[in-house]
Amino acid sequence: MTAFARNQWYVAAYAHEVGRELLGRTVLGEPLVLYRTREGTPVVLHDRCVHRRYPLSEAPTRLDGDRVVCGYHGFTYDPTGTCVAVPGQKRVPRTARVPSYPVVEQDSLVWVWIGDPARAEPRAIPRAAHLDSPGWVTVRGMEPIDCDYGLLVDNLLDLSHETYLHGGYIGTPEVAETPITTEVDEGAGIVRVSRHMDDAECPPFYAESTGIQGRISRRQDIEYHAPCLYLLHSRVAPVGVLPAADGSDPDGFHTEITYAITPSADGKVYDFWAVSRDWATDDAGVTEFLRKNNHTVVMQDVVALNLLQRTLGTERTGYQELSINIDTGGLAARRILARLAEEGAGAAEPVAGAR
Ligand code: FES
Ligand SMILES: [Fe+2]
């Protein structure tokens, strides 16, 4: 099981999911309830009432203005988690509060910090500006997967699986055949994996959406900001257009594929996925095609990873993996995740009343 790195930012939800309804999510094993104040500020509280542990994200718990009224006996919490009213008595016990968590809304994502709040630095959150920028159109979704989040990191850092698992959608023979280059910035916790194909079959995903006929140049440049944000800069163009010799942003169809990998609990992960494009932006047909097609691709991974987790669960401990060149990025990511988890290991655990 891949250890959790607690002192890190994680995507708990898309901005559009957080509103005036109470939303329940679990991040790093912490049950959370999310909502927005009337002014629009996102709030994240521990999702257990301090009285008898009723989940605050569950009906008939409700919002009263900016306050959460527990649906069991009416304990009422303000956005800081402080209990401001209890039934049957005027005096509210001093210890009646639930933890609240640092939260930042950026690039249409709601980021939460589960670890030591004193170490929460919003500037450390990696950017994904294309998700919320004029000139870009994004399709997105989220799938929960019953697997160790490390398996999803492995999956995304090695795209050679596209040829086999996603054949007929995004995979062609050239993806698995073309060697990768890997760069690791250990200090910043960033892994970059690139695969540049000069003359490749155009997979249906791009042939149908871009209208390119014939073979393509195709670039996949991965930038993984451990632990949560994964960016895949994808470029395709008819053969000969890529790459631009001067290293400038080459012509062609430029697509940003974003994942947020958020460990939910042991053996569970939220797979936030998005596909953004700056071409054919007013073509609703292309938008629908990419939404449907990418959802299918994501579900192929979901099915495979659910299966893999179940399979690994039946293995005797101490089995040996066999890694090859394509695994270089994934192995680097594992190293970084292990270090980040170790750095957070001594951090304060959240305690009711400590925030
Ligand atoms: S469990 Fe919430 S008020 Fe009793
Ligand atoms: Fe995949």
TrEMBL record:
PROSITE patterns with a match to the protein in the record: RIESKE
SUPFAM superfamilies: Bet v1-like (SSF55961), ISP domain (SSF50022)
UniProt entry keywords in alphabetical sequence: 2Fe-2S, Iron, Iron-sulfur, Metal-binding, Oxidoreductase
Gene3D superfamilies: Naphthalene 1,2-dioxygenase Alpha Subunit, Chain A, domain 1, Rieske [2Fe-2S] iron-sulphur domain
Lineage: superkingdom: Bacteria
Pfam families xref list: Rieske, VanA_C
GO molecular-function term, one example from the UniProt record: oxidoreductase activity, acting on paired donors, with incorporation or reduction of molecular oxygen
Protein name: Rieske (2Fe-2S) protein
Species this chain originates from: Streptomyces cyaneogriseus subsp. noncyanogenus
